[in-house]
């Protein structure tokens, strides 16, 4: 089984991927983790990737796909993989399918956790971080007992640039521009598994599992 995980920043994809990995006994594979692992181990693919990164260039799609294929061939991938972070655009989705087809494999399902834009903005733009201990709060969902003061150490709370509304709007705009064509691509292929990500975590999990079954 090869399952692609899709979800905007703030949709809860990270939480659900951990749960699905345990419930389905599948390996959670992040493209970023794969790249770092190959760099750390000094593999041939890692050395080639490092050459591109050293010049400030993006690692080519075909190189990332080759890393994914190699990881899929490892002995610990008996039940399949949950692929996270790739594909990020339509060209990558098509290239991945072409590479899998050569191996006699295919993406079996694309799990998409859908959350409305305004709800995503609320989740992303209300985070507060303690300058002292780094503990994270949320203005709406997990506020501190005393405004501006950390419950843990009493330090000052502030909002990082990444957590400001204008930054969140920009991040989400880029995400949906790149990802919407992928969602439609998998929908047309009849393998899209879309669930409502605005429900409680346990319900999102059950909906995902029911859809995948």
Core attributes:
5-stranded parallel sheet; globular; 16% strand; 213 residues; 49% helix; 8 helices; 3-stranded antiparallel sheet; alpha/beta; single chain
Integer average pLDDT: 91
- The proportion of residues forming helix, as a percent range, comes to 40-55%
- The count of helical stretches stands at 8
**Beta-strand fraction estimate:** 15-25%
Number of strands: 8
Order of helices and strands: EHEHHHEHEHEEEHEH
Radius of gyration: 19 Å
- Give the CA-CA distance, first to last residue: 12 Å
The spatial strand order of the largest sheet comes to 2-3-1-4-8
The low-confidence parts are: none
Could you walk me through the main structural features you see in this protein, from its secondary elements to its overall organization?
By secondary structure, the protein is α/β, with parallel strands linked by helices. 49% of the residues lie in helices and 16% in strands. It contains 8 helices and 8 strands. The chain has a 5-stranded parallel β-sheet, sandwiched between helices. A 3-stranded antiparallel β-sheet has the order 6-5-7. Strand 5 (127-130) and strand 6 (136-138) form a beta hairpin. The longest helix has 24 residues, at 165-188. The mean pLDDT is 91.
